[in-house]
Amino acid sequence: MRYEIVKAGESRSFPVPHPFLEQAAPQGEGLFYLGSEAGSAFGNGAGHASRTFVAIELGTECLGSYTGEHRGEEGSNVVGFARFRLGDADPSPLVELVRQPGTHPAAIEAARAVFQAAGLVVAVCNDFPGRIVDRLIRPYFNAALRRLDEKLASADDLDKTLCLGLGYPEGPISLLERTGLAHHFRVTQALHEALGQEPYAPARRARVAAEHEERVKRGLS
User: Fold this and answer.
1) Residue 119: which domain range?
2) Does residue 221 lie within any of the structural domains?
């Protein structure tokens, strides 16, 4: 299927060249809004009803923030998506495709087919803050950081235990240090504000890392 891409700010899902970007063409049947301002671009766009699907790149927010909600029946040919990316690491092959209760099945399948044709793997989820991966892994990361604060074990031993005991390729402390503690803070803060659940409350170390990053940006340290 031919599809068009409207770029609106920096995209976390596709920050560098990718077959998905290269295969786009003007006036396609599908339409993607890509970038940090994708939602605003969608709001200013036109002709959406004539497309097979319209896809909006999301952060942690819900698709309903841009399409609206009513009586649990919301949905149209508009879907949301985000390619999972942990902090500053390269984006993964996983695309989380977001649907609402009344989203047209044809729109979901057409968007899925486009991503799969570009070599990506698609998981479909309902419209909740953080979608699937962040909802599952952020409490795990927070728990590891809090156990480090409590001096349950050293960072190396915490990581080693989880790698050897559960077969993880990399421990949580190492993974967060490599990809950015400050980014973890921003995601968990957004989820905690949206959900109000304690497991998403940012861990102290992540908050301090974000404060330090901000001071460096402002030239204060």
Assistant:
1) 3-126
2) no
Is 47 exposed, middle or buried (CB count within 10 Å of its CB: 0-12, 13-18, 19+)? exposed
Listed range (70-74, 182-186, 205-209) with the worst mean pLDDT? 70-74
For residue 54, pLDDT beyond 80? yes
Measure the CA–CA gap between 189 and 17, rounded to whole angstroms: 30
Q: Distance between CA atoms of 78 and 191, rounded to whole angstroms?
A: 23
- The count of residues in the chain is 221
Among the listed residues 43, 36, 149, the one whose alpha carbon sits nearest the alpha carbon of residue 82: 36
Expressed in percent and rounded to 5, the helix, strand and coil fractions of the chain are: 45, 15, 40
Alpha helix ranges (H) inside 54-104: 64-67
What is the rounded average pLDDT for all residues in the chain?
95
pLDDT tier at 71 (50, 70, 90 boundaries)? confident
Give me 186's structure tokens.
């921003």
State how many domains the chain has.
Answer: 2
CATH number at residue 70: 3.40.50.720
92 lies in the same domain as 195: no
Structure-token match 């953080």, residue found: 130
Residues β-bridged to residue 83 = 95
72 pLDDT band (50/70/90 cuts)? confident
Predicted pLDDT of residue 221: 60
